Amino acid sequence: MSKIAFIGLGHMGLPMACNLVKAGHEVSGFDLVPSALEQLVAAGGKASNSARDAIEGVQIVVSMLPASRHVEGLYLGDDGLLSYIQAGSLVLECSTIAPDAARKVHAAAAQMGIEMLDAPVSGGTAGAAAGTLTFMTGGAAATLEKAREILAAMGKNIFHAGPAGAGQVAKVCNNQLLAVHMLGTAEAMALGVANGLDPSALAEIMRQSSGGNWSLEKYNPWPGVMENAPASHDYSGGFATELMTKDLGLAQEAAQSTGSSTPMGSLALQLYRLMIKQGKGKLDFSAVQKLFVE
Amino acid sequence: MSKIAFIGLGHMGLPMACNLVKAGHEVSGFDLVPSALEQLVAAGGKASNSARDAIEGVQIVVSMLPASRHVEGLYLGDDGLLSYIQAGSLVLECSTIAPDAARKVHAAAAQMGIEMLDAPVSGGTAGAAAGTLTFMTGGAAATLEKAREILAAMGKNIFHAGPAGAGQVAKVCNNQLLAVHMLGTAEAMALGVANGLDPSALAEIMRQSSGGNWSLEKYNPWPGVMENAPASHDYSGGFATELMTKDLGLAQEAAQSTGSSTPMGSLALQLYRLMIKQGKGKLDFSAVQKLFVE
Amino acid sequence: MSKIAFIGLGHMGLPMACNLVKAGHEVSGFDLVPSALEQLVAAGGKASNSARDAIEGVQIVVSMLPASRHVEGLYLGDDGLLSYIQAGSLVLECSTIAPDAARKVHAAAAQMGIEMLDAPVSGGTAGAAAGTLTFMTGGAAATLEKAREILAAMGKNIFHAGPAGAGQVAKVCNNQLLAVHMLGTAEAMALGVANGLDPSALAEIMRQSSGGNWSLEKYNPWPGVMENAPASHDYSGGFATELMTKDLGLAQEAAQSTGSSTPMGSLALQLYRLMIKQGKGKLDFSAVQKLFVE
Amino acid sequence: MSKIAFIGLGHMGLPMACNLVKAGHEVSGFDLVPSALEQLVAAGGKASNSARDAIEGVQIVVSMLPASRHVEGLYLGDDGLLSYIQAGSLVLECSTIAPDAARKVHAAAAQMGIEMLDAPVSGGTAGAAAGTLTFMTGGAAATLEKAREILAAMGKNIFHAGPAGAGQVAKVCNNQLLAVHMLGTAEAMALGVANGLDPSALAEIMRQSSGGNWSLEKYNPWPGVMENAPASHDYSGGFATELMTKDLGLAQEAAQSTGSSTPMGSLALQLYRLMIKQGKGKLDFSAVQKLFVE
């Protein structure tokens, strides 16, 4: 079993850290929110006073932070954490951030002789709690092999997307596509119902036909079609509209850096921003259904 | 076994009629193209000189025509086929047409005491040949039960979408959603590859994650990712861009009649029309990938 | 001075008919709404009991109706008005309808030896009242010359767009472009203000620069920038969102019939439909500004 | 008359610098391209070996560079030009860059006691040569008054958009709106012509009606409608597609930083990127017309 520092104990980070504890690892965590630290201690982890404190005597660092600027702020700069992590250590950076930001941290880590994976996740808070997250990782294949046991304690599907930054690229591509087919599904449901179809019948036909996609399979946006989907619970829980909007923004940053044209993905972003303007940012992202229904 | 008239022996209709023959039915077919009639005869069917000729002594009529105007032209009007079909007969109208056009034919058939299903298909020419089409049917549930054995000779999945016209509505909703996730998939593939990912690795990650959809499962638009997909054969075969464009136009007609907002679906239509302007209308619809790659 | 029948005395038709009276013409009007007839009589016109009654002894017919089906219903069919209008008469069809519908009426009129113009207007109820409408006309140039004096009593700018139906085509092209630059203006205003600019300063800069357009010149969508614009009066008055939505739908019908790709125009339609879903259909069409502001 | 340093003598910067010379100023210029320096000397200016060299003994600095990174690279950092410019000097930064980048340079300049305007231009190379550019400026109103005479030697319309960065914001808002109405105009032209209208007649009707905009007034995208527009000269000259694409990208950066929704503007960006994929990046931006014509 390993000693692991875990930086960032939010809605995702805390249950991930707890799963590491459950798997027998010794976890020293840090977060700015005291109650998060208390919950980690209650679960059998150790609270640290700072990120620097957390990495003391540790060769594996996991981080889970809100955005690029927090990750760059944590690791980079003369006084950044990379200056204090031992050479030969392993950094698993699980935040969803811009590929370019991830590559900057990779480059700095490499200079220090530290191995790193960008390893953003999908699966939401439910997947974090259940230890069934999907990891999309970027970095050396050998580094992934070293990290696999640690990641397996937190997730089920572990993909190697490619070199440094590739995990972030795969994540934004996937989430952009998810937003596109969720919107497409919501439009098709509204169009069919307006034209007289029963929502459950339509959903089932498309699910089994060439319209089939993950939104129809697991997460139908029409209330009542799936008992367990957020749509059937006032669009509460799940993956918030404002988080999807953030990911779509990262996809557009990636598109900007390569001049890629993404008409559907950028329209999805604009429509999600309209929802936020309407005060629906905290609702599950399947609440785009509301745009299309009177 | 039944006597069946089959009107419209094109790329879809001919193999469908042949499957009815194979299943033991007595099929009298009509088409304006002599070679189509010859092929039906070669397969064991009977050639008729006209649609009226074909329905002589027959109580089941199947039709497969290009567009609303052909279907209305065939069945409606003082001299339309409905005036000559025996009361109590069964009409299976398999063309993909506007829901409103289908409802008009339904109404006229009902007045004549003829039972009818609108029963558009998906599955393409390959599905038509293999007898594995999907039927999305609209009309009375009892009518579907009478038709089931006939349909089963031509297809595998048989859905009851709802009342008259509902089959057409389900079809256009499904195909609009298909176009949306195909475009979303093509964009995501191009974005990922431009940002350094291997196309097969990216495709596999998204297929197994929340981006998953039928395009990734069966029909990847990136050349070389799937051996059997049209993308790996210069986008030949499959479902032509101009046919997808036609279906997206029908979806917009349905949206217009109900005032439904479909930003993704209508953008998909506009992008498919751009492809036709570029002379790519005969290519498989997954060739939208070309829009996004230099 | 002439005897003129005027069919359709709604918000637009009534003031147009009154302007014909004012110009010295003898106007017999018909509408299904009794109060409209009373207003015409009060202005010096004559009330008729039916359209057929109104055209009695008259060689000039003007019509102003809500949609294609009303126009087709009025003029076409065995008992349509064209069967009762004298050969050699002049029909000025001012409704905004589908180009194809206009062409159908043109063809039927030509068979009867009746001259016709499709002559849709822009300028709204204010222009109708002031007699400053713009007419976009389709039909023979010689017919326009015969009609010019009549049209001049109701409008200021009289354009000859081309042959039969061309007036309607010009109208839908113009109004689609209007919707596009109104949306573009609203987006630019919201983007600039969110980034710290004063709305009036930004509006003035763009108006005088290459962003300049009619919305900035006459009809700024940001409240308070222009004293007299609907935006400064809770988006009341002006040109209703649901009327703009109707015109954008006609533009899409025209695009469908020629396979034209109009990504901006169709997106505008979808966004206007979203506004109607939000219950804003009666507001002036510049209220799209609300979509982009918290 | 003043001594002025001019950094960046490209297609825009060189004629601007020459106009300063013509107005009687003493201009020392710097550019990495020797022939640009030679042209400045031929026009009566002075060539410098470096930016540092150029600002020697000078209290007014004008810069015109391609992108944010060049401007930040020039002015910022320990060895940046701001460290060498005398306190009390005036910096006129005329490049089109991200508002956030402009604000960074403003803040650094303020710390050094240097007055600055962000002063991006519109009007293209023709306007630069003729001295008829439009300046959209951000910074203190008093600074603009000091700069007015200098700017007036290069341009005709000088706007004060607001505080630091506001010039850039106004520029990206304006250019996004320009792209939107150019696309809207190109779509409307193609739709009208496909439906049988004469392009010049349609253009004139819309120009005088509510569709009116700068593209119709000065820059019609349909070949042959305006003798002097790039469209009538194979879309050569004018404002390149790739430069418009750059500005639309800056607009999306600004939208991202405020969460602004810009469906039309972002769709315009995606369509311009499609043009670049098709190898049309060097054509004038009105060549979007080609997307919509067979």
Write the layout of secondary structure elements.
4 copies of one chain form a homotetramer.
Chain A: E1 3-7, H1 13-22, E2 26-30, H2 34-42, E3 46-47, H3 51-54, E4 60-63, H4 68-75, E5 90-93, H5 99-111, E6 115-118, E7 121-122, H6 124-130, E8 133-138, H7 141-152, E9 155-162, H8 166-194, H9 199-208, H10 214-218, H11 241-258, H12 263-277
Parallel strand pairs in A: 1-2, 1-4, 2-3, 4-5, 5-6, 8-9
Antiparallel strand pairs in A: 7-8
Helix pairs in contact in A: 1-6, 4-5, 8-11, 8-12, 11-12
EC number (chains A, B, C, D): 1.1.1.31
Pathway (chains A, B, C, D): Amino-acid degradation; L-valine degradation
Organism (chains A, B, C, D): Pseudomonas pohangensis
Average residue-wise pLDDT of chain A: 97
Distance between the termini of chain A: 56 Å
The coarse silhouette of chain A is: globular
Which percent range fits the helix content of chain A? 40-55%
Number of strands of chain A: 9
Judging by the overall fold, what is the CATH architecture of the largest domain in chain A?
3-Layer(aba) Sandwich
**Low-pLDDT ranges of chain A:** none
- Most residues in contact, chain pair and counts: A-B, 68 and 68 residues
Rg from alpha-carbon coordinates of chain A: 20 Å
Portion in strands of chain A: 5-15%
Summarize the main sheet of chain A.
6 strands, parallel
